[in-house]
Design brief:
six-stranded mixed sheet, 10 helices
């Protein structure tokens, strides 16, 4: 079953069209990788899935993005609730300038949870899910800004899942990290897909091969090809996909 269904999606920034007629179904509880050269529309597409592009002046979208069988661009959609259900982790770790505990508790508090015992439970569960509880359990009152980059990114993942989302969007979450931290995020993603649908933008094709179930190749705002990761990397149907994967692109 698909967690998100995209139909005839077009996007403009002012007069510039950045996405062209994108159609895809994203299976639930799986990892879908978006690959392609810089400026091809991967991150732009990712941000359409929880309406982050609403924040960009002059952005206009046509088509539908369905989540739980409802078009997320319908006028009656509560965007705050939508972003609770479809969380996002950005390229650079962006912890809030507050304690580790308060970073995780921020979202649940925003959505009405006041009980200290309930918040304690959410913080511990989220940090455990993000595989960082053992590293943080004795320093929850310390500033998140004192953590290493890899720890901060896992903290940001914990913060995203603290509000019980269904989908996690990840925009190149390991591009600023060292290989050891990258490996931890990749291992974490494999674990999290048992509970969440993950959509990840990556420039690292080896990463896509290692962790994703399905892969979409974007080029100049078009989704050129979409299929299982094994099919895309071993038997691509479009020569542009093959050229990009083999390094002959451009």
């Amino acid at each position: 079953m698909d967690a998100v269904t995209v139909e005839n999606l077009n996007l403009w920034y002012g007069d510039h069209q950045a996405l062209f007629d994108v159609n895809m179904g994203i299976p639930e509880k799986s990892i879908t990788a978006l690959i392609g050269p810089s400026g091809c529309g991967k991150s732009t597409f990712l941000k359409t899935l929880n309406r982050m592009n609403d924040l960009v002046k002059g952005c206009r979208i046509e088509g539908t993005v369905k989540f739980n069988d409802k078009d997320i661009y319908a006028p009656d959609v509560d965007v705050t609730l939508l972003r609770k259900k479809i969380g996002m982790v950005f390229q650079k770790p962006n912890p809030f300038p507050m304690s580790i505990y308060d970073n995780i508790a921020y979202g649940p508090r925003l959505h009405g949870i006041k009980s200290r015992s309930k918040l304690d439970e959410i913080v511990e569960t989220s940090l455990k899910q993000a595989a960082i509880w053992e590293e943080t359990k004795d320093s929850l009152k310390k500033s998140a800004l004192a953590m290493s980059g890899g720890q901060q990114q896992r903290l940001c993942i914990a913060r995203a899942i603290a509000v019980n989302p269904e989908v996690l969007l990840m925009d190149e979450p390991t591009s600023a990290l060292d290989p050891i931290s990258t490996g931890k995020i990749e291992d974490l993603s494999e674990t999290l897909k048992k509970q969440y649908t993950i959509i990840i933008v990556t420039h690292n094709m080896q990463q896509a091969v290692r962790i994703s179930d399905r892969t979409a190749f974007f080029l100049l705002g078009n989704m050129v090809e979409y299929g299982t990761t094994d099919q895309i990397f071993n038997t691509p149907q479009d020569k542009r996909t093959e050229d990009y994967i083999t390094g002959r692109f451009g």
